[in-house]
Amino acid sequence: MGRTLGAVCRLCRREGIKLMLKGIRCETAKCAMEKEYKQHPPGMHMWRRGKSSEYGVRLREKQKVKRYYGLLEAQFQRMFTLANKGTENTGVTLLRLLERRLDNALYKAGLTTSRKTARQAVVHGHILVNGRKVNRPSYLVNAGDKISVHGREKSQGFIRAQVGEDPRQTQGWLQVDPRKMEAIVVTLPTRDDVQIPVEEQLIVEFCSR
User: Fold this and answer.
1) Is 109 helix (H, G, I), strand (E, B) or coil?
2) pTM of the predicted model, to two decimals?
3) Domains of the chain
4) Which residues contact 154 (CB under 8 A, 6 or more apart)?
5) CB 112 within 8 A of CB 162
6) What is the bridge-based pairing of β-strands 146-149 and 132-133?
7) Which segments of the chain have a pLDDT < 70?
8) Which of the two ends of the chain, N or C, has the fewest CB atoms closer than 10 A to its terminal CB?
9) What is the pLDDT of residues 18-55, one digit of tens each?
10) Number of H helices, E strands in the chain
């Protein structure tokens, strides 16, 4: 499993938006983006930076989406290649594929506090899909799939600590039962389910160059 070992708040500051990389902390006043003196790109020479080039604008869109979903470069390129093989709009297809990742579905269902924790839960074997253990965070869920927690005490305790007493509001493509710690994929996610502002056409132009 690929990991970002550096300070993840720097990534949010670099992209200029909250990427929700620290879970609940990102929703509090402790978030770096909530502090006025940190609402600028990291680095001591940030004030010297001029206007971005066309290449830079497209790069930032790609990096923003890649970091939001917690992917490494090779993983992102594989997803783009898969989206490019389809007959529909490549950018929309790419975002829909990213939404269908198992780690993202867990996070959107409110069963974990962040995508990083969701990946940890999947890799450690705590999550079942249709009753079978899946240890790949990149697994693409389909309509009708049932995501549940392994019956062993360790798995139940791990997810129960993540859910908490006040579960988050989930999206319409997921039907969640917080008591049973289960989620059913009612339908496949759409472009409207992507919760960050992104111009997917710029990503397609960057990756197709």
Assistant:
1) coil
2) 0.83
3) 9-98+197-207 (1.10.1050.10), 101-188 (3.10.290.10)
4) 126
5) yes
6) unpaired
7) 1-6, 8-16, 19-50, 164-169
8) C
9) 766 666 666 666 666 656 555 566 666 555 556 778 89
10) 8, 5
